[in-house]
Amino acid sequence: MYACCFGRLLKGIVSVQKEGKISKNLLSLIDSRLRLFKKCKPFEFDRYLRSLKNCVNKYKHHELRDLLMYFLFPVFSGILSEKQFNNLMLLQYAMLLMGGFSPNPVPKEDALRASRVLKFFVQQLIDFGYPIRPTTHAVIHLPEDVIHFDCGIESLSAFPYENFYRFFRNILSSGNKPLEQIRNRLVERSKYLLPTSSDGMIINSSQQLLLGKEQEMNSSNKVVLSFKNGKGPDKEKKITFRDFVLSNKFPNNVALMKNGNVVVCSDIIENPPESKVLLIIGSKFSLKEDAFHYPYPSSTYGTHIVSKLENRIGEWNLNCLQGKMYALPHKLSDYNDLPDIRTSTCKWFVTPIRHTMPM
């Protein structure tokens, strides 16, 4: 629902004069940022954001979600008017208050605060003179669903089911007793057929994830599923965890530690050799500040502007690791070239990859 509302606001920014349309030059600046940010896409994202000017009508749900939850500040700051930008940030704030990607119950006070924020968000749109469509009005009722279903807003999404819809449709021969049919077909496949990708994802993945989650909860370390020692000229090394992959190459080498430090990983070593004890080698940013203060201090949800990467090399055990960060260059004079995060003096916007870690 919020994606439909947000998508309409983006269309207004691009093409509707009475709904916040901006100039062609500003749209070109947004697209230049998006082109550069393609190079910053971590493994955990299947899509990059396409041109806002040319593709806003074709944006998929995941593009709208990623733009709202991750890119809103770095893409639109300094381009939209202050009142228009702050209004969009209210929608992001409400989504975070409603639990974001977390499947855990949302505190009632957060859900009530989200309700107030969304009502203010819609009232501002009325004050701007924008038309209020059914989806725009409906967002004020999202906190009710969060309270009723006792989980974060993204956990209410139907997309996980829709991704497997064709599989279910193909194994049903009629509308009579569909659950029994599905159960029988899955049992038959597990007994008599070699596993396919869809069978494995449906039959085994939930069990594997639950086992991995239980193992991780009972361990002080992140559970390592695999470690790939780099070969070839780039020598990229990768640690695969249950929810994300950390490497020693940008954009997959920016880590968040449990003490709040943001670290750029330059190497991953096994020490002692053949011990399966992995260490992260890298440097931390010495300066960390809020990216913004309205409608909430960004540090409340782990989002920062970082700079001054230390020359000193440090090492961290995996039990120091909290998760992985999305890193984007901040306020560049030229958005044609991506600076090297290890050597550049520019500032970086960093935010947790929220769908890979509990909030």
Structural commentary:
With 359 residues, this protein is an alpha+beta fold. It has three domains: 2-156, no CATH class; 171-217, no CATH class; 247-356, no CATH class. The protein has twelve helices and ten strands. The strands form two sheets. A six-stranded antiparallel β-barrel has the order 4-5-6-7-10-9. It has a three-stranded antiparallel sheet with strand order 1-2-3, with no helix packed on it. A hairpin with a 7-residue loop joins β5 and β6. α5 (82-97) runs antiparallel to α6. The protein is globular and about 60 Å long. The chain starts with a helix and ends in a 7-residue tail after the last strand. Residues 197-209 have low confidence and may be disordered.
Please state how the strands of the largest beta sheet are arranged side by side.
4-5-6-7-10-9
Fraction of residues in helices? 40-55%
Mean pLDDT: 88
Major beta sheet, specifics?
6 strands, antiparallel, barrel
Class from secondary-structure proportions: alpha+beta
Shape: globular
Q: Into how many domains do the coordinates divide?
A: 3
Put simply, the count of helices is 12
Report how far apart the termini are: 22 Å
Q: Provide the low-confidence segments as ranges.
A: 197-209
Order of helices and strands: HHHHHHHHHHHHEEEEEEEEEE
Percent of sequence in beta strands: 15-25%
Number of strands: 10
Q: What radius of gyration results from the CA coordinates?
A: 22 Å
